[in-house]
Amino acid sequence: MSRVGxxxxxxxxxxLYVFILxxxxxxxxISFSGDNFxxxxxxxxxxxxxxxxxxxxxxxxxxxxxxxxxxxxxALDLLVGVPAAYAIARLRFPGRDALLAFLTAPLLLPTIVxxxxxxxxxxxxxxxxxxPGLVIAHMAVTLPFVVRIVATALSTLPGDIEDAAATLGASxxxxxxxxxxxxxxxxxxxxxxxxxxxxxxEVVISLFVVGPRLSTLPVELFRYVEGRTDPMVAALSTxxxxxxxxxxxxxxxxxxxMRALGR
Amino acid sequence: MADDRPSQPxxxxxxxxxxxxxxxxxxxxxxxxxxRMSVNPTEPGGVLRExxxxxxxxxxxxxxxxxxxxxxxxxxxxxxxxxALLVGYPIALFLYRLESRWKTLLVLLAICPLLVSGVVRxxxxxxxxxxxxxxxxxxxxxxxxxxxxRLVNNHIGVTIGLTESxxxxxxxxxLAGLGRLDRGLEEAARTLGASxxxxxxxxxxxxxxxxxxLGSTICFMLAVSAFVTxxxxxxxxxxxxxxxxxxxxxxxLNWPLAAAIAMALLALFSVVLVASGRLQRRVAE
Lengths: 263, 285
Prior knowledge:
- The complex is a heterodimer.
- By secondary structure, chain A is mainly alpha-helical.
- Chain A has a single domain (about 55-260), classed as MetI-like fold, CATH 1.10.3720.
- Helices cover about 75% and strands about 0% of the residues of chain A.
- Chain A has helices at about 5-30, 50-55, 55-90, 95-105, 110-120, 130-155, 160-165, 170-200, 205-210, 215-225, 230-255, 255-260.
- Chain B has one domain: Orthogonal Bundle (MetI-like fold), CATH 1.10.3720.
- Helix content of chain B is about 75%, strand content about 0%.
- Chain B has 12 helices and no strands.
- In chain B, α5 packs parallel to α10 (about 230-235) and α9 runs antiparallel to α12 (about 255-285).
- The radius of gyration of chain B is 24 Å and the shape is globular.
- The two termini of chain B are about 30 Å apart.
- The chains are: A mainly alpha, B mainly alpha.
- At the A-B interface, α1, α3, α4, α5 and α6 of A face α1, α3, α4, α5 and α7 of B.
């Protein structure tokens, strides 16, 4: 290719990257605005919106709810997901593929449909706007990832070491505790981090199953953006992005993001 | 490896029972309930009554509002998918050809919107496209306009926001497809004297078509069901199937109608999936 062509192509690619990254970078920049409303570039700069953010009651409450919720969801996901993943990856039984298909089926449905469906079923069961309701809702969309990631991690591990341990006289429980569990730990860590991020960021399904007395951070954020536009959202977003990046780094460290996304 | 392990259906059932219960409660039961709700009658004032009626579906198919809504959803999804393809293809091709130690970083940057909440990205687009946003103040500073041009709360804003949110999925699909491509074919064409453009049009593009179809399908499905971006960047003025489900369920409180629209959306989904499956088979041949 000619030199001019190469340079033009490079500039084109750079512009496409600007398109991808602009909204995220500008959110970061405007979080240091000192103005009363969104204007870019801001007339004044400062950290007043960070100060306002940490004094905002609704966001503080939403943050606590989301943190609690994501922790419970991850714990229960692991409790019910890891045994199922072990069965799928390590045991032989009829209907194994059907089981995996069933456990990952919630991912096929648009979240707007799933959210509505949960509202309709939770309302008569008095689960709407309760912790159990929110936990069930978030588990439906995070458990599929946990099962798939842990099952994939297990099936790529060679079974030889486990066989050797069993041959040398270790009981099945010992083999699981001393061999299988440590080997599958990176997969479990990745699955936990991903489930945590997905639950912590989930907004569409949550919109349907939260109430005035129990609301998550993303829902509060959504309502705030819907109603008003001032730079406080940018300050909150910056904090959230930094939190997500740290979580991603943990995943990257243990297994790699690409594998965690199941590709 | 020959599978000589004994079959252990009992143990497998015990281990997977809790997960099956969780998915049944959080997925199967709600979806069945949704289907049932869509044929419940509504009384004036929104009171729910158990019963059987096809009223909601009759309304869906006779009221031209829903035909327009469906058409608007399909149009918006097709446009955003096409835009994502036009932006994603050059990026994927660039990343596929790139041999540099920055490659992993550039791949991560290309898919990083995936890791940022949709609400945050929509807000970022308001900062860029809003009346006092980046683009309008640049155009004003250059003296090109004296009144801000409307770029959000309409179809333009939704299309831009949706395109950006689909892009990572498109780029990943294309990248996966290009990764399976035999580089030797491109080199052979070049050695035999084909120009870069000709090599691309006759070798690279046709061989990447299955990935294009797959990526477009994924993006189209995501676009049809997208809610956060159309709601926040459309400002209530861009009406689509997904926003109407929300409106009927949480504002108008007509649950049977919301359920019927959701069922229609699922039907649309299945049609697109089947059509795309056929297209993929034809492209692969």
